[in-house]
Structures are given as C-alpha cells and as structure tokens.
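Table S2 (continued). Query chain:
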Amino acid sequence: MEHVVSLFRIFFLFGAVLSFALMLIEAVGGDAASAALLGASFAANVIFFYIGDIEQFKIFGTVEAKLNRAKDLLSDSQRISRAFASLMIEQLAWGGRWGGLDTRRKKEIVWELSKLLKDSGLSDAEVQVLRKDLVDTAAIDLLSTWHHVVVRATDVYKNSLDSDDDEGRRSVDSWRKSIQIDFTDLPFDEALLLLSPDSVINHPGIKGRIDFARRRIKVAYESCKSEMNYSDEYVKIMEEQVNGGSISWANDLLKDFRS
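Corresponding output:
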C-alpha cells in the first residue's frame, strides 16, 4: 500500500511541475485564461501531493501535530497563491499592453485574483504590494501618451506661427531637444511637469487642449495609484487609443488645429 501511495505522490509531483511550466509558457504568451487554469491545476496537484501526509496524521499523529501540519499546508498554499498571482499580475501589467487582452478585462482579472488571494488569507496590504506593477506600467503608458500629445502639439503650434517667425520655431525646436530623455525613469509628477510645453506654446486654443490632456493624464494616474489597479479613467484613455495608439489620440485631440 505504501508503494502505491508513493507512486501517486510521484505522479502528482510530476503533474505540479508540468502544470507550473505550462502556466509560465501560457502567461508569457499572453493567454491569461489558460495560465489561470494551469495555475489551478498546479495548486490542485500540490494539495494532492500532501494528501498522503494528511492521511498519516489521521492514524498516527497527535492533535498538536495535526494542527501544526495544517498550518504548514495553509502557509504553503498561501505562498503558492502569492507566487501564482504575482506572476499573473506581472504578465498582465507588462505583457502586450498595446495588444492581447483589452485593459478593461485585465482590470477584471486583477480584481478576481485579488479576491482569491484575500480568501486564501492574504491581507489587503499584501495584495496591494502584488499590484504595484500595474501602477508602474500605467504610469509609463500615460506618460507615453502625454509625450505624443506634447510632440504633436508643438508641431501644430509651429505650423500656426507666422512664416517669418523664425525665433518662435527655434524656441520650439530647442525645447523639443531638451526633452529627449528617458522620462520613464523619473517620478510621474516630475516627468509630467518636465514634458509640459507651457513655456513655448502661446496659442490659447492649443494650450487649452494640452491642459485638458494633462488633467486627464494626471487624474488617470492618481486614480490608478489610489486603487492600486487600472482605474476607469486609465481604461478609457487606453480604449480611445486601441486602434491608433498615442499618436492617434494626440491627433484627435488637436485635429481642429491641423494645417
């Protein structure tokens, strides 16, 4: 009988390893649904792997030993859940941000994962730490969108200047060169301010449009940071860009001023 139990444990151990490997492959490939199913299979195989130990406790263990082992199993389950959720959230955040699953569905999956983690015993603070990648990638996406708005706005502004206003054009070109840096390494508020062309754009109509865009970008980031998830405002901005990306969004914002 002991030999049969050992064979079953080997089988479940192999199943756990295989499920985990396939889960990683599917997650990297952007198939969140398949990765979630394989993650569940991985957890189930781990639990079945320990069933033999649980049965032994029923026969030979003391009450204290049973309780200690139960606590260990619960701790193991939480660690597995945490690792699985962390991997899934990381893939949702960094993988295929401009393709694959739409942003709204990603947000729903994150809420589902968060509920699963809380049900398994993790605190709100622990779950929020796992969701930090979402805020980081939202900041990068929003700053990229803002950068495209700024570039397009300064192009439109240059075209609106009088033909003999060489100084105005040089001022815009000089400012544009000054922002050719890796702004994603800067704190969000600092990067947003650095990329604001207020000092070189005097056209009230164009300035009004970029002020509107800046407010939306700021609100979207602050709400993502508050929720530790993709906020509704961030989702709306990403949905508006689904076909043409940031450049299309900038063009739509400034379409009345195209020359």
